[in-house]
Design goal:
9-stranded mixed β-sheet; alpha/beta; single chain; about 300 residues
Length: about 300
Amino acid sequence: MSDFEVSAEEFRALYDRVKQMSQRGPADRLGALNNISPAQVVAAASDVRRGRVVSLAAPIDSEAAPDNPDPAVHQMTHTGISSGPASGLSFAMDRVALNIHGNADSHIDALCHVIFDGTLYNGLSPGAVTAAGATELSIEVAGGGIVGRGLLLDIPRVRGVPWLEPGDHVTADDLIAAEAAQEVRIEPGDLLFVGVGHRSRRRTLGPWDVANARAGLHPAALELLAERRIAALGSDGNNDTAPSAAEDVDFPVHVLAVNAMGLHLLDWLQFDDLGAVCEQLNRWSFLCVVAPLRLPAATGSPINPIAIF
């Protein structure tokens, strides 16, 4: 067994530890969003100085690719050509259909997304997710928006590489090294974004089968994040490494974060623009606004997080 591999017994022990560290009572439905206080939102807003606004989302792609075999469908339902007579009023209209979860489009996972050992977050029955949608823990939990201090830890920058190769792990030591290099600290209530350079690699080398090969967080790193009591976790990958380091668990970070800790995960973001602004300003924290769609029964939502400096 390599240093990165986690046995079934070790994973169960890790799951129990982070779950115990994150317990909030049987009635809780917000999960780690409880870690954001109004005072923290005010403090994050007070740090806005320049009015610079940056998106953390990738453009929605309607072209099939190895990492996106079932892409979004964009259809024009009323065009300028079909809009009618030259005089008077008409409208151009369209519709979009896309999978909320996948390996390409930026999205947020609701707390009903991950079922492990027959339960959802906080021990709720998976029967709460029906053919009509989720009756508990849907993305509507975050329907009022997630606002707080965003923090980007750029792991490739700290390691001195353009990106992490598929299969590489971001460890707790990497996170601590990034804190030191960027002169920041992960604080309670943070919206933490961990960069692995996925979009840079994809743009340079082309798309690949990320379902079976991708860089991400090592499951043991979640213990540090449970200790720091972050409010949400995002990545330009899907947060999990493939192949998985955990025996018999394909998405250990999803299990630990969503199911055990109640963390909303933001997958497949885009940090190229954000990283450039952070580098220019030598500032790695910012006001962050995450506004999921109001989808009352959904297991997640497309997302366009906004960083404000």
